[in-house]
Design goal:
The chain has helices at residues 402-406, 408-422, and strands spanning 2-5, 16-20, 32-38, 42-46, 58-63, 79-85, 91-92, 96-105, 118-125, 130-136, 155-159, 166-169, 212-220, 228-239, 242-248, 259-267, 279-287, 296-303, 308-321, 326-338, 345-357, 363-370, 377-381, 386-387, 390-395. By secondary structure, the chain is mainly beta. A hairpin with a 6-residue loop joins β20 (326-338) and β21 (345-357).
């Protein structure tokens, strides 16, 4: 299991992302695994449908059409789930502040058009010695059976924290008790047979203050008429401002030795019409010496629209695909933003993600997150790959050397200075100065 700094997208600020591959699966404590598979239901991590953030795959879940049951088969009801259970708990239900997942319904599915994958939360109330599965289903959360069909062949980012959940008793080890323990018409949360109430939030089931979240589950079925093919990724679980995302991938993204450099400018897609200076300028070096696990590099960037400046000199991830002419760089550093006081600036810890394309034309996507106060806030996102208006990006074929490492800061400062000049920007006695070096005799 790979543990990386999160760099997914603007919709989900978080602390960490865990890449889960088939090699990580198992039934041990804290491991994801397939569960409750029957009558042809299947959950597996594949490369069939890559996620929407540049990953190579996702969790594929499928159900066959019950009408295609083998001859003389009684009670044929395909089902499949994929779950993780941690007996000590992930955190208190009362402190849960992030819960969601991305889902994708394939258009080949013949089951009713309102059906979506379900997300279920396993909880244990130690004071009452009760454990339940709290169930989010699309049919009770904006996708009614008499409504329009849900989106198909596209990823949907679903936040379920404020959604409606019904419940079913569940053994704390994840063993399904079954809805036979539930009684129709019972609504009192204190009665463990009360299950079929479909308009209650997580806080409305009367669980005690010490209730733990001990597991998560995503699944399909049962009792669905027709076949179903879907994909799930980026399952999100967070407590008290700290969020973990589970990214299902067919293999771990191995950081690869590489050497990339670049500098230039592009028009800020976020700049309002008529902005006097809508440009973003940048310079970077990122490299990994042959045979070394360490990354080296720096990124300096100036968002002229908002006067935000980034100076990052720690690289945490470098993944290079020379054949495709693409690379992904992640790192940490400092941002400066204007005032207060007037004319002043303030510094905050930050991290960044930079996607680059060495092509014709060269392209970049830049995301910057403030880490002030121990949290994480997106403060800039170009939104997509943007063509350079000037400058150049190079994925070097030759390996980096120690000399390249030693000259990183000098070269990056020079690249940024050249980008400012190429962009037609004039450096003045700005009380909030740019990260541009003073060159003797310059």
């Amino acid at each position: 299991m790979a543990l990386l700094l999160l760099t997914a997208n603007a919709a989900m600020a978080a602390d960490t992302i865990q890449v889960i591959t088939p090699a990580d699966l198992g039934t041990g404590d804290g491991q994801w695994h397939a569960a409750n598979e029957r009558d042809g239901g299947l959950s597996q991590i594949t490369a069939t449908q890559p996620d929407q953030y540049g990953g190579a795959g996702s969790l594929e879940q499928s159900l066959p059409d019950p009408a295609a049951a083998p001859p003389n088969t009684a009670g044929y009801a395909p089902k499949t789930d994929f779950q993780i259970i941690q007996q000590a708990g992930f955190g208190l239900l009362a402190e849960l502040d992030a819960l969601g997942f991305d889902w994708y319904r394939d258009s080949s599915s013949t089951a009713p058009g309102h059906l979506t994958p379900a997300l279920r939360v396993m909880v244990y109330d130690p004071d009452a010695n009760d454990s339940y599965l709290l169930v989010w289903e699309g049919v009770y959360n904006g996708y009614p059976s008499n409504g329009p069909a849900v989106p198909v062949d596209t990823w949907v980012t679903q936040d379920v924290l404020a959604g409606n959940f019904w419940r079913v008793p569940q053994f704390i080890d994840g063993t399904f008790m079954g809805i036979s323990t539930c009684v129709d018409g019972i609504t009192d949360p204190a009665d463990p047979t009360a299950c079929f109430v479909f308009d209650r939030g997580l806080d409305d089931w009367g669980l005690g203050p010490n209730t733990l979240v001990v597991g998560l589950e995503v699944g399909l079925g049962s009792g669905w008429a027709g076949s179903y093919l879907s994909f799930v990724d980026y399952v999100r679980l967070g407590f008290s401002g700290s969020t973990t995302l589970y990214d299902f991938e067919p293999s771990a993204p191995e950081p690869s030795a590489g050497f990339v450099t670049g500098g230039g400018w592009f028009i800020d897609p976020n700049a309002p019409a008529g902005t006097k200076n809508p440009k973003v300028t940048f310079g970077f070096n990122a490299m990994q010496l042959p045979g070394s696990p360490d990354f080296h590099g720096s990124l300096q960037a100036n968002i002229h629209t908002t006067k935000l400046k980034l100076h990052a000199d720690t690289i945490t991830l470098l993944v290079v695909d020379p054949a495709a002419g693409t690379a992904q760089i992640e790192g940490e550093g400092t941002i400066k933003t204007p005032g207060p006081p007037k004319g002043g600036s303030k510094e905050q810890p930050a991290r960044f993600r930079l996607e680059i394309v060495d092509g014709n034309p060269d392209q970049v996507r830049l995301q910057i997150y403030s880490l002030a106060g121990g949290g994480e806030t997106l403060v800039y996102d170009s939104g997509a790959l943007v063509e350079l208006g000037g400058g150049e990006i190079t994925i070097h074929q030759e390996a980096a050397t120690q000399e390249d490492v030693d000259q990183i800061e000098t070269r990056v400062a020079s690249l940024l200075a050249q980008a400012e000049l190429d962009a037609g920007l004039v450096v003045t006695a700005d009380p909030f100065p740019l990260f541009i070096p003073v060159v003797a005799g310059g």
